[in-house]
Amino acid sequence: MLSYNRPHYLVPAARSFISYMTAVEPDIPWTLQILDNGSGPEALANITAELAPLRSLRSSHASVRLVHLQQPIGLSRGFNVLFFDMCASTRAPYVLSLEDDWRARADSWPAGFPVLQASMQALQRHDSLLEVWLRDHHHNFIFNKPAIWQLENFTMPAAGGRPCQSAAGEQQLQLQLHVLHLTCINTRNNPWGGYTNGASLKHAGRLRQLGRMPGTDGEAVYSKCACRKGLHVAYICQDTSCFEPVKQWHDGLFEHLGKSRVAASLDARSNKATVARKGLFSGPETLFNLQHEELLGCG
């Protein structure tokens, strides 16, 4: 989770993610990695105080890590540090990418099934799938048509299907879910078929093959790069409850809270905010060559 100067979004976003994982998908081990991209002292103090109780979550199954950069390094480079340094250090096979204004519908996920487990299975099944989108989205924004929902079978331990026994004797459930694969058609007019910074579960190995995000705010360029490499994105629904054909609106696990950011001159994504960092080190940015402090450790 990348954050900058918005504790009023970050804190409920972090808590909602933890609530969802605890209530709906408790079998998945996870580490919530939060990178504060150079927020000012007042915002940082609020974040640290509000998240301090999360230290009690520290275990082999679930933990929270908060790292603060002394200076902002921009959106792209911030995600690079998260993906290729902080998250890579866990050796997890999947990365859930979030910004601080994506809140999980912990108590009201409309589709009512463990979508992260389903997403992992979809990523295992489809070699060209980079990520499963978990965000609210208007279908017309994507412009990846024609695309049709197709039924796929999933096996998971959560409630909501036909029980069966695994080889180990564990209760498992068979679900038929609808999957919408959005491939890249015209990246010149619309690049959003390969990648998003927003709420999505990504295949860590394919992300590493894609390499680091370019520029200051390189989300669109990065998505085009994924398209050129033959990668694509998908949605997963249990039924039409999470997709409204008339409105062409997809309800994801995560809803978008943020309407606006701070002034552009102060935003961690802006050229002005990142110009001071240019030329200070060569090669890819890592926590090793950035001034930072760890405020909440993984344990």
Report how far the terminal alpha carbons are from each other. Answer: 18 Å
Instruction: Based on Cα principal axes, name the global outline.
Output: globular
Mean pLDDT: 82
Number of strands: 16
Cα-based radius of gyration, to the nearest Å:
19 Å
Order of helices and strands: EHEHEHEEHEEHEEEEHHEEEEHE
Percent helix, as a range, is: 25-40%
Which spans of ≥5 residues are poorly predicted at pLDDT below 50? 160-167, 270-282
Protein name: Glycosyltransferase 2-like domain-containing protein
InterPro entries: Nucleotide-diphossugar_trans
What's a quick, concise take on this entry?
With 299 residues, the protein is an alpha+beta fold. The chain contains 8 helices and 16 strands.
Can you offer a commentary on this structure?
With 299 residues, this protein is α+β, with helices and mostly antiparallel strands. It has helices at residues 7-23, 41-51, 75-86, 115-125, 139-142, 204-210, 219-228, 271-274, and strands at residues 2-3, 30-36, 62-69, 94-97, 102-104, 129-133, 137-138, 149-156, 162-165, 171-182, 200-203, 232-237, 243-244, 249-250, 254-256, 292-296. It folds into two domains: 1-104 and 257-299, no CATH class; 110-252, no CATH class. Strands 4, 6, 8, 9, 10, 11 and 12 form a seven-stranded mixed beta sheet that branches. A four-stranded mixed beta sheet has the order 1-2-3-16. Helix 1 packs parallel to helix 2. It is globular, with a radius of gyration of 19 Å. InterPro entries: Nucleotide-diphossugar_trans. This is Glycosyltransferase 2-like domain-containing protein.
